[in-house]
């Protein structure tokens, strides 16, 4: 996989635009999910995730092939989501469709072929609740919790993505875990 | 509850893979004797499992096409070669 991506990036750098489509297809779910979790709504997530890929394409010459591409790409995406969060009006959160379980249409997030037997409903409600609690963490904790546990980056990689010292990553992941533990302990 | 603060630090170091052998032994010993820390540790691990088990979100079907449609025009050099 890494080899395939490396090869595609070489082609893109040579000016082959079509090769970039494979890169987008390969990373689209990860980047879209990351944006969705950071922003809490599908429309903005799509907008920002697209923008992240477009910027990656435009700036592909500044990507250092000695480093991990996914780290570089997530860095672009994360910076864009943080900019977007900063630009929001304070009351924006009231409209974000992830608040509460009604607005966040979990059913629409499931894959099309996904069945919904009775016993999964309870699980779905729990998942929806966990989503909500994650979405209510301050962004600086939320981003790290997601990068670590959903996207499985190492703490070192997270410090590169977010451009903050490793020690800060550790302090924040510690606080993020404690905050979530408190919210979820009575479930 | 003076023990808690130190033990909780160790739990987080454990979760980040940062514990030394000695610290690990200390934490283990403490957990054997302290029920509230055991509970705390259990809750932390359960929280992580829950985060990891949440539903994956997928990009819209036409995502790649939309991105490709918005890219700046291909550099002439290559399109010319094809």
UniProtKB/TrEMBL annotation, chain A:
<keyword id="KW-0805">Transcription regulation</keyword>
<dbReference type="InterPro" id="IPR014294">
    <property type="entry name" value="RNA_pol_sigma-W_bacilli"/>
</dbReference>
<dbReference type="InterPro" id="IPR000838">
    <property type="entry name" value="RNA_pol_sigma70_ECF_CS"/>
</dbReference>
<dbReference type="InterPro" id="IPR039425">
    <property type="entry name" value="RNA_pol_sigma-70-like"/>
</dbReference>
<dbReference type="InterPro" id="IPR036388">
    <property type="entry name" value="WH-like_DNA-bd_sf"/>
</dbReference>
<keyword id="KW-0804">Transcription</keyword>
<keyword id="KW-0238">DNA-binding</keyword>
<dbReference type="InterPro" id="IPR013325">
    <property type="entry name" value="RNA_pol_sigma_r2"/>
</dbReference>
<protein>
    <recommendedName>
        <fullName>RNA polymerase sigma factor</fullName>
    </recommendedName>
</protein>
<dbReference type="InterPro" id="IPR014284">
    <property type="entry name" value="RNA_pol_sigma-70_dom"/>
</dbReference>
<dbReference type="GO" id="GO:0006352">
    <property type="term" value="P:DNA-templated transcription initiation"/>
</dbReference>
<comment type="similarity">
    <text>Belongs to the sigma-70 factor family. ECF subfamily.</text>
</comment>
<keyword id="KW-0731">Sigma factor</keyword>
<dbReference type="Pfam" id="PF04542">
    <property type="entry name" value="Sigma70_r2"/>
</dbReference>
<dbReference type="InterPro" id="IPR013249">
    <property type="entry name" value="RNA_pol_sigma70_r4_t2"/>
</dbReference>
<feature type="domain" description="RNA polymerase sigma-70 region 2">
    <location>
        <begin position="27"/>
        <end position="89"/>
    </location>
</feature>
<feature type="domain" description="RNA polymerase sigma factor 70 region 4 type 2">
    <location>
        <begin position="129"/>
        <end position="180"/>
    </location>
</feature>
<dbReference type="GO" id="GO:0003677">
    <property type="term" value="F:DNA binding"/>
</dbReference>
<dbReference type="GO" id="GO:0006950">
    <property type="term" value="P:response to stress"/>
</dbReference>
<dbReference type="Pfam" id="PF08281">
    <property type="entry name" value="Sigma70_r4_2"/>
</dbReference>
<dbReference type="InterPro" id="IPR007627">
    <property type="entry name" value="RNA_pol_sigma70_r2"/>
</dbReference>
<dbReference type="InterPro" id="IPR013324">
    <property type="entry name" value="RNA_pol_sigma_r3/r4-like"/>
</dbReference>
<dbReference type="GO" id="GO:0016987">
    <property type="term" value="F:sigma factor activity"/>
</dbReference>
